[in-house]
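Render this sequence as a predicted structure.
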Amino acid sequence: MSGDNHGSAWWSDALRDPWRDPASPTRLVTQSPVPPPPEAPTAPAPTHGTRLGLVMTVAAVTALFAGTLGGALGYVAASRSAGVSHVALGRAAASPPALAQRPPDSLAGVVSRVMPSVVTVHAEAGQGENLGSGFVISADGYVLTNDHVVGDADSDGIRLTFSDDRSVAARIVGREPESDLAVLKVDRADLTPVELGDSDTVAVGDPVLAIGSPLALTGTVTYGIVSALDRTIEGNDGNGTTRYYAAIQTDAAVNHGNSGGPLFDVAGRVIGINSMIKSLSSATDESGNIGLAFAIPMNQAGRIAGEIIDFGRARRTVIGANLQTSYRGPGGGVRLADVDKDGPAAEAGLRAGDVITKLGTHPISTPTDLIALVRRYDPGTVISVTYRRDGAPATARVTLMADAN
């Protein structure tokens, strides 16, 4: 081969390679044998005494382990049987915060503040007793409740129980059956009156609190929202008195015994008086709350209560017309059967035969709608009335007035 082959894998230096030098004597190199590792020292065979000691050692260790394990299992079993828990639970508060320490604008703070103003009303008549609720409206002892709570009781049969369990006699100051309101009086001058709210500013969706004695469970608080406004309802007490409500509807749980009790806003102001419920049962003893409760607006109730206190009776707001209860027109509304010649309707230009379809912004479909909504307003209120005459729409401005009774 020619060229530089030093880099070849097969290249070797022939001059120093004994296999390439014929004159070089042949030598066989043998590797010295590797000596075997030295034998490990062999333990002498145990004697009888040694074997006995080993057995006793193993037995002692086994007994110690068994005793320790048994003791541990026994402790666990005893702990479980004694109700001892080894789970890390949340740390208990050293002392729960007192109710008085809650923020005054919290629901608990509001309830604590208004509860002394709420009473349970016991009205005895004959062999029976009506039980309802009420609330203090003046520091000198006036209390407002429903007329149907008072029922047939006289002043000698009425007692009020306060939140501190004090029970005192009460007398009837006056009542307005068709509006379902009554004012009572106790001889005390140290009472805490409620704060009255403006029911005209209430909106659907506002949160509310109902407090009273449903089913004789005194001091019961329920929570809900305003479900509807100006819900017109007609009720009958079974004794010939027809009651009319343009009510605040709520879903707060209200049952028998809540009647006459306050409906508060979340600031602790009374915006209504819980008066009626709707139930799936027509039997009075079996009916219960299904999320439909109705309260008399406080502005209406406050005016009537003030007149009862000042004059012994309250005025009813009227429009000055009789209604045709059998009318069923294709466009709805209520037909005027006749009109008082000196009444509000006549002075506004309304005539018999006119069909009222709207009072203010409220549609009118039945006589109950018109009567309940008119009574909701104070005498002297000027309100727009939409009506039809001979099929043609028209409007009038009517100044409502008090009845002559």
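Summary. Confidence is low (pLDDT under 50) at residues 2-22, 26-32. The CA atoms of residues 112 and 186 lie 23 Å apart.
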